[in-house]
User: What shape does this take?
Amino acid sequence: SSRVSPTQLACPLDLGCHSVFSFGLAGEGLLLRNMTSKRRNNGRAKKNRGHTQPLRCTNCGRMVPKDKAVKRFLVRNIVEQAATRDMTEASAYESYAIPKLYVKLQYCIACAIHGRIVRVRSVEGRKNREPPKRPGRPAADKAKTGAAAAAARK
Assistant: This one.
């Protein structure tokens, strides 16, 4: 039997898939191998859903599926820190809580990489599913929770 070298074509068996398969003839059977996947979730959080609603990128306005978008929740003071002291001195109220600004930012992948919100990672780095370490939070504070943290403050 002559062996045909594998070629890449659209799925010949009409399996209802949109990916490209590598297949070749070996004897009387048809060898069918999926292409390797770059990410475990294929870059999306859509499991067993056919469609997710699109949303607009905050930066460029591109339509991006909700499960694929990079989402960040920004909480910051409306008044910058330099002016906060001036406002508290000039205020007639003794204890006035300055309001905060709450904004949900949603980026397409291109803008998230360009704006350094997410970084390109190596093959081994992509397998790491731990959230990155947050700046300004020592590991000792993370271990203390609930009553232990309250007792430590006293």
User: Anything to note?
Assistant: The beta strands are 7-10, 20-26, 29-34, 54-56, 63-65, 70-77, 100-107.
